[in-house]
Amino acid sequence: MDSPTIGIVAVGTYIPPTHITADQIATRTGIPASVIREKFGLARKPVPGPADHTNAMAVWAAQDALAAAAMQADEVDVVLCTTEEWKEYPLWTAGIKLAYDLGARRAWAIDVQMRCATTVGALKLAHALMVAEPDVRTVLIAGGYRNGDLVDYANPRTRFLINLSAGAGALILRRGHTRNRLLGSALIVDGAFSLDVIVPTGGTMAPNTAAILVAGGPYLDVPDPEGMKARLDTLSMHNFLRVIDDALAAASTNRAVPYTRADIGYLNILHMKRSAHAFVLRELGLRDDQTVYLSDYGHLGQQDALVSIKEGVAQGRLCDGTLMVIVAAGIGYAWGASVVRWGSD
Question: 132: exposed, middle or buried (C-beta count within 10 Å: 0-12, 13-18, 19+)?
């Protein structure tokens, strides 16, 4: 039996109005501003204001998506919440609060966590859920992110994390929606990297102390940066390309001519250093105008994908009939990709 058509009805975002510039980051890190701009690919990045709490931003992004779809919240059947673990309260199911604040009182909600690959994971879960459950017609994927709070700018071991920023994203999927069709997704994980990037205190292994809190921590850290780099450099870019190929294969089910890299029209990729971004484009045979480089946003974790969709449409790079590949990687490590036929065929 053929799977039902599942499409993206609308996308929403919320970006804090306050920013930190490349020059300000340079002052805090000791790295020249030119390196921040050219190597790290950061012109500026949003930082949260006093009211920009993680799940609160998710609510605002979800409201933006509902408004764009001209939908009421009570039409949502399920909320897959991608709000990060660094949020208003620990041990807190953010998705239930998100659904409640939206007025999605019919929906059940669950939190989904896969770090920066969470949106792709949620897309895969949503697709499977809507295929398996006839009563699930409309799914909201939404979440907020402000892991930039956990970056110690003075720590040279975590300099690759200085692009972490703040914001929120949301999208609405609906069964039977024939535009912006979600065609397939793929995920790869490798737990060998699970302890390479951690917040070392605040859990059961090492509870926070008064001294840590007074010093402004806890912060993200990399216990063995050279070991991580040596192991990850040989694998990460390979897995970016592999998961894209896997997603294209998943999208080709029941298709006479399988999708290939040559069919990709828009690459929706998370923010990364410029050289890595250029490598992926080059390997896929894509031009700079077939993606959006998020130099004014930094890395909003799993919400990069929603910002890229909005910017891609606004800049005329994501057009009707374009095959879009969403690709991301999250510490842990996880790589994910989804294929979407934007607009109509």
Answer: exposed
